[in-house]
Amino acid sequence: MPLWNKEKDGDDKSGLPESTLFATDKFSRTDLLICASNGSIYAIHKQDGTKLWKAKIGSSAAVISLFVTDSDKLVAGGFGKTHCIDLMTGNIMWTNKMPGFGYSEVSVATTPSKILYPSTVVPTVESSEILPPHYDQVTEDKQIIISCSEGKAMAIDLESGETRWTYNCPGGWYNIPVTIIEPSNWEAGRPHQLVYVGSGKWVYCLNASSGHVIWSVQVSNATFSSDYMTLATPWSSRLAAESHSAFSQNPSGQAMSMQRARERSS
What we know:
It holds the Pfam family PQQ_2. The chain is mostly beta strands.
């Protein structure tokens, strides 16, 4: 795995938010712990907590959601915007201002770039008794960021930051939608990746590439409710067991939105 040693970055002259690199020693992606607080994102070293870089993306008035891709990009959502940040330097590569999505918390996730499928090579009886299953790595389509806020979902090209599609969830109101992305499965006859979106009392299943609505269903008929939803699948829960940090497990963004709603009504 390559190591990186970058010089200090100053202010970005393109109008993007400011980022600063503090590191003087070499570090790799496996050394990084990313945290966000009070409008800034920090990369710190997992071994001793040393600050490696800082990126300022907004004020201290909202929660910032984080997602690290397998191509060394950090996706950050907050204040009604989505940012793509170089994982190794903190340099902000692009910002999508998400017109029409307001200025609240943004939930973010990306489609995977590679999927593991069972290998077509059948192992011998002897080896199958002692070895784990063999898998082939299959490259998926271009990665897409799914950013959601205020009852809407947006697909953003990971490389360029351009908007691919938007979807205004009927019945989603102004809630923060949560998402689960499911990779394609050729054996099951599903050649495209899916995005499950939960917002308010509704769940929507979308084609990740096109935004086409495959199905939608109102799961609750409650008259009095908070209108917030969480989602889980067996596989997403297995992944969450290792991260312990996701909107559906720790809905801090939803809690902040509810607090603001109470303040407005008082």
